[in-house]
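Researcher: Next sequence.
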Amino acid sequence: MVIKVSENEVFNMYFGIIEDTRCKVNVIHPLVDILKLIMIAVLCGVDELDKVVDYGKNKKEFLQKEFNIKLIPSKSTITRIMATISPKWLSLSIVCILKTLIKENIGQIMLDGKAIKSTDAIRTIETMMNIVTAYTDTGISLGQKTVDSKSNEIPAGLRCWI
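Model: Next structure:
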């Protein structure tokens, strides 16, 4: 029997293992909600804390309905939280969340090859680095590998991950 859990439950489960060191008396924003907001905003391309707050305000109804985030924290609150939590536990939680969501929702794995040219004018075209990236139809990158030469991405990518 397979039990399907919601994205919100996955976030709560893995972010719930991170210790909240704040004094419990004046806590307005649950730690899990702040971390969910940050991760969702970053997955949507947001890369600055003030823009995370703007994203939260602009998507408040969606965040409340889908992820039960009731209040959007300020930039200073997010900054304090990020300074106090364990980077080790945060990164472990994020990896577990992504692995869980990818396993449950994966449709296709796509491969894309790119040639990275050197910025050194002395180097020749033969010194280009060729990279194959595997990603899901959700847009999450599963990994990158360098390959020997520019060729068809599918055989090169399959050789890398098999």
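Model: Residues 87-105 form the longest helix (19 residues). The radius of gyration is 20 Å.
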